[in-house]
Specification:
With 543 residues, the protein is of the alpha/beta class. It has one domain: Alkaline Phosphatase, subunit A (3-Layer(aba) Sandwich), CATH 3.40.720. It is 24% helix and 16% strand. The strands form 3 sheets. The protein has a 10-stranded mixed beta sheet, with helices on both faces. It has a 4-stranded antiparallel beta sheet with strand order 13-14-15-16, covered by helices on one side. The longest helix has 27 residues. The protein starts with 9 loop residues before the first strand and ends in a 36-residue tail after the last helix.
């Protein structure tokens, strides 16, 4: 039986794409102001030990199913628009769970979990509505996606092609759509209290667009960041400004509707940032090692937080609790007053890999999670696992490339952090309006506490050796060495063997990767140059 709706919080899940650890102010960067994002972070729980997967499709599959990608076949690379597959239809997804609890469910933005057939698309998988795109990226102005040499429009309003949105900026489109969902939400359902809302906002930002314009943003916004060194980083800053502006507008819309004090807002990146020109982008994971699609901390340790008056009455803190992107499904389900008992151990159809951490977050106690499988990809030949304070990496994605540390650091005398911007932001003012004002003292304390220190002395100094994943696995103590500088594999052989054995046990439960060859029928030119559900056997969606 579903609980009384008035008892259930509204859930707003904001997923940024390719946002780096160091691209938010609350992690210590002074370079690009993110006052709205920071305001919610300081008012909520900054998730310091929060992990995502290293790539778009695997992370989104983990979020929606509560399962590691190795258990859904989504562990290798990304899902391409002309692949005849999608997230398995046997999986029950987060919006379906919440809809069963009485939630209205709406999605805006990126899907990237398949559209081979209609039944793979968002409105067939638990969402009441969707405005956004189906592939992994698109141009923010013309909304076309270039993949494997093919080109086509990718913007949908539910199942219909949204031709009318051509020329409008994607971040603005998704912001306006999210705000409209909030304004139109029926908070007075006769006879059953207030209907709860689940709103999934999956931005295109900060993913690069098409190669002809990889960092699309209006020139007048770029001009605001003339103090940011490097043309691409400057454009990145402008794109991030628009994303931060969106977070403020959504928060303010919740305030205006009277829903904010009854809401949970989650903010998360989908993977580490593509730094130093990776994927024609300019993110920063400093001081963490690696980039997107690597299993270094820079690829899998995510920028994220959860805000809600249900957690801490507006008094923010930096959470050291271990949390993984698979944990959101059971955690939010419990927050929504669901009563299902989750099974984290058996590999059966109702088991999930996520841990229900809601009570731990509320009470500030350790979560039940003691280990995180970052991924096993036998096609790439790499894998990584963290157990307690120890992390093992085996193999590498790019034959040793992208295994270093990449700036910019965003720290130093050139830039300064302005706490006033945070307090006076739309999000900051919205928090103040419900009795949760931010102070400069709180901001300063939490910001310092949320920064990674790579120069701290280890609690148990040990000899170390360079790490060369092309030759042998590497072992790191992540608590002492979050930047993965000191390889302890040769000095802690028993720990190395235990973690490798645990990786083997995980691998024994894996299903094969579901990747398929590109299907010529998926070519957008066959569908009025529109990415379409080509597996339906008809052309009615665009003709």
């Amino acid at each position: 039986m579903a609980p009384t709706r008035s008892e259930q919080p509204h859930i707003i899940f904001i997923l940024a794409d390719d946002l780096g650890w160091n691209d938010v102010g609350f992690h210590g960067s002074d370079q690009i102001p993110t006052p709205n994002i920071d305001a919610l972070a300081y008012g909520g729980l900054i998730l310091d030990r929060y992990y995502v997967t290293a790539l778009c499709t695997p992370s989104r599959s983990s979020l929606m199913t509560g399962k590691y990608p190795i258990h859904t076949g989504m562990q290798h690379s990304v899902l391409y628009g002309a692949e005849p597959r999608g997230l398995p239809l046997t999986e029950f997804l987060l919006p379906e769970y919440l809809r069963d609890l009485g939630y209205a469910t709406h999605a805006v933005g990126k899907w990237h979990l398949g559209f081979y057939k209609d039944e793979h698309t968002p409105t067939h998988r638990g969402f009441d509505s969707h405005l956004g795109f189906w592939t992994g990226h698109h141009d923010y102005f013309d909304h076309t996606a270039v993949e494997k040499g093919w080109w086509g429009l990718d913007m949908r309003r539910n199942m219909d092609v949204a031709w009318d949105l051509h020329g409008k900026y994607s971040t603005d489109i998704f912001t306006d759509a999210a705000v409209q969902v909030i304004r139109n939400h029926n908070t007075n359902v006769t006879g059953n209290g207030n209907q709860p809302l689940f709103l999934y906002i999956a931005h295109a930002a900060m993913h690069s667009g098409n190669p002809y314009n990889p960092l699309p943003v209006h020139d007048d916004v770029v001009k605001k960041f003339e103090n940011v060194k490097g043309y691409n980083r400057r454009k990145f800053a402008a794109m991030l400004h628009k994303l931060d502006e969106s977070v403020g507008m959504v928060t303010d819309a919740l305030r205006e509707k009277g829903m904010l004090r009854d809401s949970i807002i989650v903010f998360s990146t989908d993977n580490g940032g593509p730094a130093a020109g990776f994927n024609l982008n300019a993110a920063s994971n400093w001081p963490l090692r690696g980039v997107k699609n690597t299993l270094w901390e820079g690829g899998v340790r995510g920028a994220g937080f959860i805000w809600s008056p249900l957690l801490n009455n507006g008094v923010g803190r930096v959470s050291r609790q271990v949390f993984h992107i698979t944990d959101w499904l059971p955690t939010l389900y419990t927050a929504a007053k669901g009563t299902k008992q989750w099974n984290n151990t058996n590999r059966d159809p109702i088991a999930v890999d996520g841990h229900d951490s809601w009570q731990a977050l509320v009470e500030n106690t350790p979560t039940s999670r003691t280990e995180i499988l970052h991924n096993i990809d036998d096609l790439y030949g790499n894998a990584a696992l963290t157990v307690g304070d120890w992390k093992v990496l085996k193999g590498t994605t790019y034959q040793g490339a992208w295994d270093s540390w990449y700036g910019p650091s965003g720290r130093g005398k050139k830039h300064t952090y302005d706490a006033n911007l945070v307090v006076e932001s739309k999000a900051g003012k919205a928090l103040e309006s419900i009795g949760s004002p931010l102070s400069k003292e709180l901001i300063t304390r939490l910001r310092e506490d949320a920064q990674v220190d790579c120069d701290a002395e280890p609690t148990a100094p040990q000899a170390s050796a360079p790490c060369d994943l092309l030759k042998s696995p590497c072992l790191f103590n992540i608590r002492d060495d979050p930047c993965e500088k000191r390889n302890l594999a040769a000095f802690c052989p028993q720990m190395l063997e235990e973690l490798l054995q645990r990786l083997a046990e995980y691998n024994a439960t894996a299903v094969p990767p579901s990747n398929l060859p590109i299907d010529p029928m998926g070519n957008p030119k066959l569908w009025q140059y529109t990415w379409s559900s080509f597996g339906n056997g008809h052309f009615s969606k665009v003709l």
